[in-house]
Amino acid sequence: MEYLIRLENISKQFPGVQALNNVSLGIRPGETHAVVGENGAGKSTMMRILAGAEKPDSGQIILEEEAISFHLPVDAQKAGIAIVYQELSVFPNLSVAENIFANRQPEKAGKIVDRKKLEEQAIELKGLFNLYYEPNKLLEELDTADRQMVEILRAVSQKPKLLILDEPTSSLSLSEAEKLFELLEHLHKQGITILYVSHHLDEVLRLADRISVLRDGEYVGTVDCEKADENKLVQMMVGRAVSLYKEYSDATRKGEVALKVEGLSVEGLFEDISFKAYQGEVLGFSGLVGSGRTEMAQTIFGLRKHDSGRMELLGKPFKPNSASEAISARLAYMPEDRKSVGLFLTMTLTDNLIAPQLFEFTRMGLLDSSQAVASTESYIKQVGIIARGPDQKAAKLSGGNQQKLLLAMWLALKPNVLIVDEPTRGIDVGAKVEIHEILRGLAKEGMCIILISSELPEIMTMSDRVAVMHEHRLMGILDKKEATQEKIMTLASGIVGEEN
Q1: Is residue 484 within 8 Å of residue 453, measured between CB atoms?
Q2: pLDDT average, residue stretch 70-95
Q3: What's the rounded Cα separation, in Å, for the pair 40 and 261?
């Protein structure tokens, strides 16, 4: 049997969109097969068809040499296909063990749940990840990353023939992602076939045996991992040669001090942070997840109170007691989680764009709709949002376009200092390149950009200087020429401390 499962000439159309067009590809038994492509390439639709959540308009699925069709997701599960979606579907009010074995709890006589056996099975699975929480702990007591790990455990517990993972590291720290990779390698050795969908090309190159590429709903090709690299995959994804991490030759400090931070501390989150950020530069903040970067940014933006330290914005004392005060001082913060705390997904592009500065679009307490729409249209054009128009709901945009909308929201404030937290997480290659170009263009025009990113290539190529944090402290600031991967990781690991 050459293929465990094959898609043959699969097509699927939604109103106004050809999601998949005559797609054929095969997944071999026991392999880790990655699928990559830009947002809108058809990856999600293909996964949902395999998982029984969508029915193809034409074509067929061949599982173990037999044609099959799924009417419901439960049909796919019974056939041995398990899927973990990027969006969590756990039950916060149930325990870890109850989530893992939801609707499949071991029972005693009389249909009573055997709680002892339930917890024993959860502990056995949990051991694969070396997870620290107890099986009777409620999901609502866990953070997002741990909830995602529990959902993966639930899929693994089904002992599937095919395990589909959709952006599984999107909510995981580097150390948690390493545990996931170890588990996947373990499952790979056990012969479980894995379909791995991710925007992180370094991940698929590390984990996959073969990589298939979709573009605009069509199958482009499949390459063996040892014959692929990031440049080759990017070219297949976008149809042309693209430099994913462009080197910016004009990376020099240009202006006056825009933001000065001295001895900033919040107990338990970060301590004694001091730095200067200049007009016209991109100051990157690197460090492992949990090092305190995001908490520092939230404090600068007025979302947290600091215990000690002081700040200056354009040479004047700056101590925002709220986000609105920071906004009034023209300091903006673009958060990392666009869906939960960044955008109003059920609202229009216009509603989102004017939200941080509603007062600018009101006259005598009434909204000037024409001005709001005109401003939205201007920023749609400026940041390159692909949308039907200003009245489109944010939820209907692709991930990359949602991220560009979030950026436009804060650009509309015309800030002197813009803090961007993981600005390209979870978006496709094309959108990532566009956002990089926008940020570097803003710096060139004199804006101070503070970039927080977990991607070393992004930090190294985008930043004029790199500030590195470790366990809530700033270990050093490196100029661009000396900001090598080795030096950044040395500081991020806490091995040495340097001051610049």
Answers
A1: no
A2: 89
A3: 41
* Side-chain half-sphere CA neighbours of 169 within 13 A: 27
At which of 238, 273, 291 does a domain end?
238
Secondary-structure breakdown of the chain: helix, strand, coil percentages, each rounded to the nearest 5: 35, 25, 40
How many Cβ atoms from other residues are within 10 Å of residue 155's Cβ?
Answer: 20
Q: What tokens were used for 37?
A: 């492509």
Residue 252 within any structural domain of the chain = no
CATH number, domain of 72, equals 3.40.50.300
Over residues 436-450, the pLDDT tens digits come to 999 999 999 999 999
- pLDDT tens-digit map of 466-478: 999 999 999 999 9
Alpha-carbon distances, residue 297 vs 38, 212, 300, 424 (angstroms)? 30, 38, 5, 17
User: Based on the domain organization, do 353 and 444 belong to the same domain?
Assistant: yes
User: Cα Rg for the chain, rounded, in angstroms?
Assistant: 24
Claim to verify: residue 214 and residue 279 sit in the same structural domain: no
pLDDT tens readout for residues 10-59: 999 988 789 999 999 999 999 999 999 887 789 989 999 999 999 999 99
Q: Are residues 264 and 231 in the same domain?
A: no
H helices of 143-228, where?
144-156, 174-189, 201-207
What whole-number distance in Å separates Cα of residue 401 and Cα of residue 397?
A: 6
Residue 229 is classified by DSSP as -
Q: Distance between CA 309 and CA 306 in Å, rounded?
A: 7
